[in-house]
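Contributing new records

If you add data, match the layout below exactly. Sequence lines come first and carry their own label; structure lines follow with theirs. Keep one chain per record. Anything else will be rejected by the validation script.
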Amino acid sequence: MTGAVASISGIRGVFNDSLLSADIAGYAANFASLVQSERILLGRDTRSTGDLISRVVTGTLLSRGVSVVDYGILSTPALFRESRRSSAPALMITASHNEPEWNGMKFVIDGRGIVHPELESILDERTSATRKEGKKRVGSTGSISLGPEPAYNGEVEHMAGAASGEGVKVVLDLNGGAAIPHAAPILRAMGCTLTVIGGTPGVFPRRVDPTADPLEVLSRTVKEKGADVGFAFDCDGDRLVLVDSDGRKRSGDYMLTLALQELLPTVEDRSVVVSVDTTQAIDEVVSGLGGKVHRSKVGEANVISAMTEVGARFGGEGSSGGLIDRDFNSCRDSMLAAVTIVRALRTRGRRVFGKVMSYNQVRLKAEIERRRAAVAIRKLQREHPEAQTLDGLKIPISSRSWVLIRPSGTEDVVRVSAEAISEKEAAKIARTYLNAVKKLA
C-alpha cells in the first residue's frame, strides 16, 4: 500500500497521491474481516472526496457480504456514539484536522477506537492480497441502508438540560465541517442566541485545525456581536477551541481546564487522565478539588486506554482541544465541552473566564533524522536524570515550567513543547531545548 500516515487515530493521506482507492478498499476489507460483523456503520465529514471514498468503502463491504448503514455527514463523536449505542463497528471517512486535500479513515469497534494489534491487522498487505477476490462470508448478503436520525443531538441536549443556555450569546465557527448538523441545533435547544459563520458544508474559509488558526474572523465577530463566547470546530467535529467574550482566542489547554473545573465538582470520583503534554493547570485544579491526575502518552487513544485502566470518567488532551467523558463517549467530544462552558456562562456569567488557572505553551518542531534524534535525547536524559520518560523526555524547569522533547514515531521530526507562566519564557525554553537537540544530534 502507499505512503499514507497510519496510527490508531486513523489512516490519512492526500487522496489519489499517498492514499489511493485500492488502498482504501484494502483497509475496508481488512477491517470487515477483523470485526466479523454483519453490518458496519459509515459516516463522513464534508471534504469533497468524502463521497467518492464512501462509495469505494461501501462497494468493498457489500462485496464482502457486509451490510452498510450509511449516516452520511455527521461528526466523529456522533458516529462513535451510534457505534456504542448499537454495539456495531463503524468507519468514519475523515482526515480530522488535516487540510482539505487530505482524507482518510477512522475505525471504531463498539464505540471505541482501535488498538495497535487491530491497526496492524487493518494495514496487513498480505491479508489484503488474499482478499482481492472479495469472497463473501458464507450465507451472508450485504445490503445498504440510510442511517436513522442519530440519537446524539437529543442525548447531548438531555444531558445539558432544557433552557440551560438561555440568554447566552454564542458565535459558532463551523468552518464548513461536520459539526454543522450538531452544534447549532443543540445550542438552540439549550436556548442560546446564535450567530453562525462558516455554515456551508465543504467550504473552508480558514485552516481546518482551529488550534493552528488565529481565528481572526471568529474573534472579530464575537466582539462585534457582544457575544459571551465563540466556538471553533475542526472538520470532523471532535476538536474545540474557544474565543472568550473579549475576542481572545484561548488555547485547547485553557478550554480543557475550564471544562474540567466545571465538571469535576459534580462527581464523586475526581480522577482525571490527561496526556503528558497537557498543561499543569489541570493538576492544580484537580488537586484543589481533591482528585488525582494520571498522565498518559500523547494521543487520544492512549488517554482513553489509561482512563479505562484507572477507571477515570473524565480526561483529555490540551493540545487538541479535546474533552473526553467516558460515560458518554470513548473519544474527545467537542459538543460536551461546548455545552459545559455554555452552562457555566448561563449560571455565572463571563467572570468564569477569569477563574481559570492558565499557563502559556509554545510548541516548536524541527526536521531531524530519527536515529540522530534518539541519540540526542539519550544524551539529554543523561544530563537530566530527574526527567520523566513516559513519552519522550519531560524535563521540569521550575515548579511552574517544563519542557517536553518528543521524536515523531512516523516522521523525521522532533517536537519540543514548553510551558511557563509567560509566553516569552515558554518560547525561550522551547528554543533553548530545540537548539540543544539540534546540537547534540
